[in-house]
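This section describes the prediction task in plain terms. A model, or a person checking by hand, is given the sequence of a single protein chain and must write out its three-dimensional structure as a string of tokens. No templates, partner chains or ligands are provided. The sample shown here is typical of the held-out split.
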Amino acid sequence: RQADRKETAAEQTPNTIALRPSTVIIRHIITGAGLDGSTMDLLHSFGVDLAVHLQAQCRDYESWFHLASMVADLHTAFFILFPVWFHLRHEVGIKLIWVAVIGDWLNLVLKWVLSGERPYWWVHETWYYGSLQAPVLEQFPITCETGPGSPSGHAMGSAGVWYVMVTAVLSIAAEKKCSDVFIGYMRLVLWTVFWSVELLVCMSRVYMAAHFPHQVITGVITGMIVAEIFSRVQWIYSASLKKYFYITLFLLTFALGFYLLLKALGVDLLWTLEKAKKWCVRSEWVHMDSTPFASLLRNMGTLFGLGLGLHSPLYTESKKSTSAPFRGGCIMTSLLLLQLLDSLNFSSDNETWYYLLSFCKSAAAPLIATSLVPGFLTHLFCGKAKNIED
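The expected answer:
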């Protein structure tokens, strides 16, 4: 059957998707790397077959796949994991934000360059199957992401974030001078958990027909590389507010400049949005918050908000309080306020206002966790202490 598909496709066209400028450019890049159109067709068809198999055989685990995709989203890192880790160990929280933001920014650039397809629209437009009936892929509310597919942002983000957390726990154990046997056992357990989580995330993205297998594998590897690089970088813990501002500005202008350059060359980087709107079975499943620019501004807002929070007088004053009850209070209060902040949803009718408000919302999240909540609790506890003394 695979041979018939390949033969039929070869007779019709060497390319599986209708020609567009970005596809022409990327085909030359792929061909130069040794992957021609037929090889990519085989890779894509294998991914579709695997997705069909998972949807047929793993139906009972659908809720787990939904949970895995939700946890792997960087939204979880920004609104849940960051406030917890920041108040337990500031350096880990800071590194987590940097790895997540830079990793997702790199993911955006790579997606623009690689211009990867997604299963839920590729299966409808490819000529690979020829006269044979194409496989039927089920779609879900989280299937219809609007950006290019390679590498997987969920796989890349979760790999980077979990890599930071695993290495952080192992470093803490080493600092506590735990026995070599205990550290070895902990290393085995934590890395087993890490790879189990990544496997579940990868299966989830394939099950949802949002990614091909090679895209999630590439995402995991790239995410781990980004996290490992930042494990060797120390200046992020003492970066000035000016440096935060300039880095945020550089990342934003570079991405926009790269977009405008490719657009001037005739490359339509928003072609995937049209695909999503065309092939998603329900229009309400196409969300603006999954567009490349929404992701870019969210990340830039998060990084800039972290810089504002770390250089706020409230944060400087709150660093004097290190007791366990204070840290616990900061974690619980931050999580509560961030969930309230997260409940704010903006209309996408006006894209300019939508992007601006998304930036402000993302900047507010780390600002609340790093300075506003600790500062408020510091004043609250200090005020009670003074009243008791009086």
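For orientation: Residues 2-389 form one domain.
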